[in-house]
Specification:
Blueprint: H1 2-20, E1 29-31, H2 48-54, E2 63-67, E3 73-76, H3 78-83, E4 91-93, E5 97-101, E6 106-112, E7 123-128, H4 149-171
Parallel strand pairs: 1-2
Antiparallel strand pairs: 2-5, 3-4, 3-6, 6-7
Amino acid sequence: MAFTCFRNVIVLVMAIVSSLQFMHVSSMEFQVGDTNGWAVPPANDTDFYNSWASAMRFKIGDTIRFKYKKDSVMEVTDKEYKKCNSTHPNFFSNTGNTMYTLEHSGYYYFVSGAAGHCERGQRMIVRVLVQDVINDEATSAASPPTLSLPLFQQLCALQFLFFILVSLVWLA
């Protein structure tokens, strides 16, 4: 009797532990420029936003929040970014508290819509990582290789099925 109860507890714990592996990290929200917000950077730090963005690891589904006063934010093409041309933006907002969802991997180009601000460094390139790449080029050589998401999910599913099978055998 006691052995059967103990066995059932073990099976329950194994099922719970294996199901926890199916949980995934939800999207993250990043505030552009941290406490500085979205504003013209100091003249001696015109690469401020690109430095900030390159230090982050953005994934599909993440959101970036632009906080600003008397300004705007635009998502533009790479050519418009290089020229600080904001006449045909893909996205425009001037609410002072703009949320932008990163919906695909690749590069996003943001500029200020206020006259002269982009030329003074208020622009940023955001790189969104591909989520199912085994070794991203940004991963250092010292870091262990990471599994691709689909492969990891497959391994978790196999482990979960194994635990279900074992628990059914034990309960029989």
